Amino acid sequence: MKLYLLILIAAASAGCGKPTAEEYFARAQKDAQAAASIADTLRSPDALRGAFQPALIGFESVVREYPHHPLAEAALFEIANIKNSNLHMPQEAIDGYALYCRQYPSGEKTALAMFLIGYLYNNELHNTDSAGVAYRRFLDRYPDSDMAASARFELNNLGKNPEEALPLPKEEPTARRKNQPKAAT
């Protein structure tokens, strides 16, 4: 009888193990997709945060429970991305991207994370000093990146309004007359 109970307990505990990194990650992706599909219908920031909370918890579980698993890198980036793109929490997103860069200095998305730090400082928080530092750091490390031209543009136009950054060409009065339709006679 004792042997039977021990086998039963062992079998029950084997089925109650923690999810794998893949299971946490897949569930978090599904939760993020579900939240994104209803995000436009949610009227309050609290409701939006509540909708994305299960996804954040799932990705955080991958990072916490499986810190050396390859999916931990992707999960850490997804946490920052949700805070940036879905929850519109720029400072928290910056903190997440910075953590990603520290944890994965040669990571698959380190260049993007570094660029986004500068972008968020400049365009969301309007902190041109921090944006300048972030863009210069990005350009020092990734001068030939696909995003380097954008970083240089942003860096050269810090503090300028859109009209100053991208001035429209002035139209010549004679050019305007040539392009206008002729009046019917």
Structure write-up:
The chain has 2 domains: 69 residues; 70 residues, Serine Threonine Protein Phosphatase 5, Tetratricopeptide repeat. It is built from 10 helices and no strands. The longest helix has 21 residues. The N terminus is likely disordered.
Descriptors:
mainly alpha; disordered N terminus; 185 residues
The CATH superfamily label of the largest domain reads: Tetratricopeptide repeat domain
Question: Structural class, please?
Answer: mainly alpha
Instruction: Enter the CATH topology name of the largest domain.
Output: Serine Threonine Protein Phosphatase 5, Tetratricopeptide repeat
Low-confidence stretches: 1-14
Helix content: over 70%
SSE pattern, N- to C-terminal: HHHHHHHHHH
Query: What proportion strand?
Result: under 5%
First and last CA, distance: 110 Å
The CATH architecture of the largest domain can be given as: Alpha Horseshoe
Task: Give a brief rundown of this model.
With 185 residues, this protein is mainly alpha-helical.
Topology:
Blueprint: H1 2-14, H2 21-38, H3 45-65, H4 70-86, H5 90-103, H6 110-123, H7 128-141, H8 148-156, H9 162-165, H10 173-179
